[in-house]
Each structure stands twice: as C-alpha cells, then as structure tokens.
Amino acid sequence: MAYRLGIDTGGTFTDATLIDEETGDVHVGKVSSTPRDPSLGFMEATRRILGEAEIEPTKVGYIVHGTTVVTNAIIEGKTARTGFITTGGFRDLLEIARQIRPSLYDLQFEKPRPLVPRYLCFGVPERLDARGKILEPLDEKAVSVAASQLRREGVKSIAVCLLHAYTNPVHEQRVGEILRRDFPEAMVSLSSEVSPEFREYFRASTTVINACIRPVAARYLENIQARLREEGLMAQLLVMQSSGGVLTFGAAAKKPVFLVESGPAAGVIAATYLGDTLGHPNVISFDMGGTTAKAGLVQDGRPQVTKDYEVGATAQAGAGGARGGGYPIRTPVIDLVEIGAGGGSIAWIDPGGVLRVGPHSAGADPGPVCYGKGGEEPTITDANLVLGRLNPDYFLGGEIALDAEAARKAIQQKCADPLGLDPVEAAHGIVEIANAAMVNALRLVSVQRGYDPREFVLVAFGGAGPVHACRLSAEMEIPTTLIPMSPGTTSAMGLLVTDLKHDYSTTFICQVDKLDLKEVATAFCNMEQQGREILEEEGVQDKDKDFLRQVDMRYVGQSYELTVPLSGTEFTPAGIEALLVRFHREHDRAYGYSAPEEPAEFVNLRLSAIGRIAKPRLRSLDSNLDAPALKISRPVYFSERNGFVDCPIYDRYNLAAGNIVDGPAIVEEVDSTTVIHPGYRGIVDTYGNLILTGE
Predict the structure, then answer these.
(1) What do you get for the CA distance between the two ends of the chain, in Å?
(2) Bridge partners, 32 (sequence order)
C-alpha cells in the first residue's frame, strides 16, 4: 500500500490529491460538489483520480477526508432531534445563553434559536460544589423519568451537562449509565467527556452541538466507509478535525464537534507544511475557493488555535469576529477568519444603490453565469472572466467551457446599467470590492491579533486564491507570496501532511504562587494516559507518540485567558518562572500591555496526544527547458495600466525551476490561474512553487 488519498469537500468543488509515498508523485483531481449528498461527490472524486492515475484501489493505504457536513448541518438546521439534561434549576440554560450581541446597538437582533427546544430540556435534582464535593445526591428516578419522556418524544440523541461535572464527573457518568440502560437507542454525549471545562453555558453548548450532529456525522461517515469498501478500498479512514490533526472515522463519529472546521483547517495545515519545508516558519494562509475565502496565521511553524469559536447562520469565524451571533464551542479550532467571498460569490446592488459582493454564493448548482448551468446572478468568477484573467477554453483544463458573453451581459444588466457604468468598470469594481473584504480578513487574522503581516509570507491557494493574491499582498505590504503547485487542490494535500491528534483539557484554577507542582504533573499524566491508550488502539508505535502540553493563564480577576505552551521540564520553580515570562510576553502581544507585578493564575490544563504519521515529501520539479512555457497572449485588464494590455499567458507545467515571469502575466494550470500584476515578478523554485515579489 504505497498511496495516500486526500478528499476535501468544499461548497463548490470536491478536490482530490493522490500521493505516491515512494516516489513523491502527485495526482490531483477536482469534481463538482453534490450539496444534497456530499458523499456522492466524495466517491466521484475518488473514482476519477484512481482511474486517471491507473491505481488499483488495494494500493491505497490512507484516505483522509476534510468535510463541511457538520457545519452545514448546523447552519441549515438539519440536526437530529436532541434532548438535554442538566442540574435542577438550570433547565433554561440554553434559552438564557449569553447577554451579548454581535452589534451592541442593533435592537432588531435576535439570538439564535436554541438547538434543543425547551420542552426537551430537563433538570434533575443533584448538586456539586465548585471543587466537586457532593452537596445533593443524584435523583436517579428523575433521570429515568426524563429518559422515558425523551423516548416518547422520539429524540435520537441526548446531551448531558451537570453543574461542576468538569471537576467531578461522578453524577454525569451515572446519568449516562441510566440513559444507556433505559434508552439504549439514543446517542448520549456527556460534557465531562466532550468538554470538561468550567463555564457551564459554553460546556453545555459544546455538548449539545456534539449531540445534535452526532447521528448526522455517524450516518455520513458510515455511508462513506461502506461505499469505499464496496469499491475495494480497504485503506485506513481518517478525517481532519478543527484543530489540525486527524481522527479515525470511529473517533470522529463519537465526537463530531471536533470536525466543525474540518475542511478549512486542512488548508492551514498545507500552508504550514509548505512554509516549514521551504524555511518560512511564519506564514499567512489564504484559501479562496468557490464559496468562501479563509485566512489563517502560522507562527514559528504552528497554526494559531482558538477556543473562542462560534458556529451558526450568523456566526463569524475566529476570535476576531463579533461574538454572540452563533453557537459557541469550546474545542480547539484553528484560528480562521472566513468570509463569503469566493469565486461564486454574487455581486448585487443594495436598496441604497451600492454595489456589493457576497456573502451569498451561486455554489456548485447552478454556479456562476459563465458556467452555463442556469445561473443568472453575476459572480466574482464572471467578473474575472470579463477582465480577461480567466481563459474560457481552459477552465479546469477545458472541462468546463466558460461563456464570456453571458458573463458580460449579466454584469451589464445586474450591475453596470443600474450604476451607469461600463461592464468592464463594473467587473473591476466587483473584483476590488471582493479584494477589500479579503484584505479585511487578512488584517483580522494578523494585525488584530498583534502580528505584523510584513514579517510573514502569504501562501495563496484555492481555485481563486492565486487570481487575487498579488493585489492582497500589495495592500497588506507582504513582501513575498507563495503560490504552490496545484493550488486548487492544496487543501486536499493538507489532509495528507498532518498527524493523528486527540485533544484533552481539564479545569485547574489556581494562583501560580500557590501551585502544587505535583498536582499539576498528576493532572497532565492522567490526560497523557488517556491519549496514550487511544493512540495504542489506533496502532501508533511508542516512538511515534508525542504529547503537547499547554496552560490557559490569566491575571487574577480577568475573565478570559491566554494559552501558553508548557514544556515537560517546567514542573519546577525555575520552569514556572520561565512560563510566567512567556505569559507576560504573550499578553503584551495580544493586548498591547502586560503587568508582571500582578498575580497570575492557571485556569485550564490542555494536552494534545499526537500520533506521528510519515509525511510525503515534496518532489523536485522536473527540468523541461525544451517545452515552450509561453502559450499565447491575450488582452487582460489591469488598473495599474488603466485598461487592457496585451498580456503573455504561460503554461505552468512547462515552467522550469529558476524561470522568471515578469508581470503583467498570467500563469495557467488545470485547477487555478495565477495573475501576476505589473510591478511583480514570479520566480519558480526547486519544487515548482511560484514565488511572487514586488520589483
């Protein structure tokens, strides 16, 4: 078994990457997504890439999947019927939620509807104090009554979140036992297993999300596994999780809340891998697909991870977004800013006569107007086609013929005429509005987090990312931009360069100068033992196991905390002092100040159990100096030249290492197009990556 297959299901396209572990040969493929049943697109991409590469299914050892099924189920309200059991007196926990809103003065704002209606929420008598001491024993009869009522209501899944179960799960575990005895058909999610941290609403929300999507995720993953086995693919099946590692299908089916940002996380991992391989530990990942654009930041070779994430129809991704518009989860998620600005994002005129772009998308069906599949609303892809930046005869290698005239007419009717503009001016306006939105996303993930983007390399990918990369790097003053080979399928490649990963956490609130270091070490050892056991079940050898320790810290009196890495040698007074120095430095970076004279405290202990998987290596570019890279030239619009210029068009597959492409120029390949603006130069490196720099 010498091949690895990565399948990334996006809103518009499903991407596939097949890597030969022995030679490093890479095969890529792209098919339209099937939103009604994403598994159909998954299987079509699998069949196509194996057929085109002429690879027997039995030779595939790993299949790694990135999916948006979990997120889409929540956004579209297609979750399973779920019940909720909590401590007596806290039945309205989900209804009350938080007293915050995304826009402070928006009097029309309505909180998202709870995922569990009130009549399916039950409080059972029991009580622990904040240190886990039993104040009131669990009323087991009340649990049985709740189970009977939930069974009559036909629920498929049950979330359990008892007060202070994070510090002593004994009552919660007993509730789980009773539910499994009295209602064995239901899937039960316990907060002490899903998210054992303090702050009851966040813990409850995380557990409820896990419960309501668990039947959906389990059915989806089981369906894919069955279809793969029917096709003769007996490979190990893994799925990307939000924090950047992978889980087995079995583990993912039990804790699908860890898959909320599965697909987008793969792109950041790919950017991390490329940066590490090429000697760029600090990179900004920019992934622009057909539906959305996503930005993430990697510092010192590690993606930034957040625990303040919301999912839902009005949620904004990443800690930089306004909070209160979605359902919060407290599991590690790669810190992404995601906006509705993909190639299929629709351009429209608002009631005030202003041109806008997104967040609505034409998606995969019907897609942009130029696809000729019934779309009537102009999109960013249509605008780029009108500007000459896309080749109508070579989109997806010629698989889809683009109708430039239809795109032009749609832009004229829907955008240009209402604004009194020429269609080309309107198309340029659409692109620049989209660019402005994407620049804002890049600022949110860098400047707003306390990072200087000029110290980072922009890694741009996705089908549409390289089209817009030059303008974005110019606006952000980023000196170097990297366009990987096959950028349209880079996220799928990211699935194949990550490790098995299981995240654990426990609340441990204690002032630093009062710490019992043995108690801290014991807590970490307990989590490490859990991780070690599950990695052993997954067949990971001891030499491939690694454990990353982190601590959530804050100044005493603060409401929120920062995560600081902890090395294994720091369970000593000197080590704790070094940890404090790092905390003060991180606080200064995040908030612009620190207060070393103030007492600090631990809040949560975190551990990631990592099972190392051998990474496929980048293959050096074959020198093919005899093949002409220059294909033709065509008129392309650049605002820097105040109109269309005769622009050379290059075939990326015929560019050799060391080749230099001066802008303005277009570099075409099957799954994407790179636009090199005037004043920029592209240099092809040893691995075929295109390095863009300003002249």
Answers:
(1) 46
(2) 13
Retrieve residue 517's tokens.
């270091």
Q: In whole angstroms, what is the distance from residue 59 CA to residue 21 CA?
A: 11
| d(C-alpha 316, C-alpha 240), whole Å | 21
Q: How far apart are CA 93 and CA 116, in angstroms?
A: 11
Distance CA 152, CA 158 (A): 13
0.85 surpassed by pTM: yes
- State how far the Cα of 397 lies from the Cα of 604, in Å rounded to an integer: 50
Cis check: omega of the bond before 418, within 30 degrees of 0: no
Strands (DSSP E) contained in 206-364 are: 236-240, 246-248, 283-288, 293-299, 302-303, 305-306, 309-311, 327-329, 333-334, 336-339, 345-349, 355-361
Neighbours of 350 (CB within 10 A): 8
CB 83 within 8 A of CB 159: yes
The CA distance from 560 to 328, in Å, is 15
CATH class of the region 75-217: alpha beta
Spatial CB neighbours of 633, under 8 Å, sequence gap ≥ 6: 646, 647, 648, 649
Give the span between the Cα atoms of 141 and 114, in whole angstroms.
27
User: Ramachandran region of residue 631, left (φ > 0), alpha (ψ -120 to 50) or beta?
Assistant: alpha
User: For residues 482 and 461, is the Cβ–Cβ distance under 8 A?
Assistant: no
Q: How far is CA 518 from CA 327, 514, 570, 571, 582, in A?
A: 37, 12, 11, 8, 21
Closest CA to 94 of 107, 109, 76, 112: 112
pLDDT digits (tens, 9 = 90+) for 246-292: 888 988 999 999 998 888 889 999 999 999 999 999 999 999 988 88
Residue whose pair of structure tokens reads 């660019």 in the numeric block: 435
> 3-74+218-259: what fold?
Nucleotidyltransferase; domain 5 (3.30.420)
Distance set, CA 346 to CA 415, 432, 457, 630 (Å): 11, 14, 29, 33
Vertex 271 angle, CA 210 and 438, to 5°: 80
Decide: helix, strand or coil at residue 674: strand
> In this structure, are residues 582 and 563 in contact, taking their beta carbons and an 8 Å threshold?
no
Closest CA to 572 of 521, 509, 505, 507: 521
* Residue 445 identity (one-letter amino acid): V
Specify the pairing of strand 660-662 against strand 680-684: antiparallel
The stretch 231-243 carries a mean pLDDT of: 90
Distance CA 289, CA 464 (A): 6
Structure tokens at 276: 């590490």
- Sign, CA dihedral 590-596-599-604, equals positive
**CA 22 and chain centroid, separation:** 29
Residue 81 buriedness (CB in 10 A; 0-12 / 13-18 / 19+): middle
Q: Which pair of tokens denotes residue 156? A: 């498929």
Cβ neighbours around 123 below 10 Å, total: 18
Q: Is 85:143 a contact under the CB 8 Å cutoff?
A: yes
- Which has the closest alpha carbon to 331: 309, 363, 348? 309
What is the residue extent of each domain of the chain?
3-74+218-259, 75-217, 500-611, 630-694
pLDDT in tens, 455-510: 999 999 998 999 999 999 999 999 999 999 989 889 888 888 888 888 899 999 99
- DSSP conformation class of 413: I
Instruction: Name residue, tokens 């779309």.
Output: 375
